[in-house]
Amino acid sequence: MRDEGHRQQRFLPYASLRGASLIGEPELVVDGRPREEGIDTDKALVSLDDDDWKVAVLRWPVVVASEELLPVVPDDEAAEPPVNVVVLVRCPATRLRRAVKADGGGVQITIAREDVRDAVHFTPLLMRTTTRDQPTPGFASRAGVRLGQGRAWDLRVDPKTPKAGQFLDVRYRRFSDDALLAPLGDTLYHLEVDQPEPILWINADHERLVPVLDAKGSTGKQARMREVCFDLITHGVWVQLFVRAADDLTHGGELTYPWQDTALRELLPLVFPEERGHTARLDTLQRVLAADGLAGVMPRLDPALQRKMELSRHLVRLVDEVGT
Length: 324
Fold this sequence. Notes:
Elements: E1 8-11, E2 14-17, E3 27-30, E4 33-35, E5 39-40, E6 45-47, E7 55-61, E8 83-91, E9 96-101, E10 106-112, E11 119-128, E12 146-149, E13 153-156, E14 169-173, E15 189-192, E16 199-203, H1 210-213, H2 221-251, H3 258-271, H4 278-292, H5 298-309, H6 311-322
Parallel strand pairs: 6-13, 14-16
Antiparallel strand pairs: 1-2, 3-4, 3-7, 5-6, 7-10, 8-9, 8-11, 11-12, 11-13, 15-16
Helix pairs in contact: 2-3, 2-5, 2-6, 3-4
């Protein structure tokens, strides 16, 4: 029999862990020498921003207990749960991306100083490792499915510098000059959200659009075009931010990054205006997601975003400016 006291979160389409730590405090070796300073467990932060170093090795112990895995696998797999911890490694500034599997009770990750800048983000995931021949209702059956997400850690390699924006870092780059962005060369923007500070990349290859997006005036055709262009971008950005936060609530039961709470505090009063208070709105969002998924939220989110951005008003102003 399963112990119903285990913490778990059941949403469609499968059972997933909620609140599991997955990995503990890391051991740090810098240029071959172990060191303890610079590790802040409360902030889940490792700081190497004041040191001249070449190679850092971080090893996290896997701390998820075997009994914690029982709620996410069928009974016939409980003796040897086909799961493993995988840590996603991302450095947004240098486009470094990697996935490292746990081995021997821990996850060891080597970072070369020349490969990273600003900060490196480590996100631990609990992943299913095999595919079941006969799926069991309520449980994931495919290999590679995420069954839970633990607390993320950061490695700070450069002093943090302030930037504009509430939680979104906006950067221009020629997608044609970037190996990872090149396949998106015909698009206008790309949003990276699976990290503590989302980055919005604007494709500078569209040379005729960049001056419009950078226009500073408040009157004239360029100002009106800038409003509408940013409405189109902002709509897609807000949807992605919302969906990423909703996905965490659905599959993990809690938010991973501070920006997700900030985004929901901004949007939920517009999506659920009948509710009073952030806690009540979050509860309502989780109930809707559990019952109907994102399909139950999107009919509310889309008109809320149109009103937030004043899309109709900006389009009318553009039409008035350019004539018909």
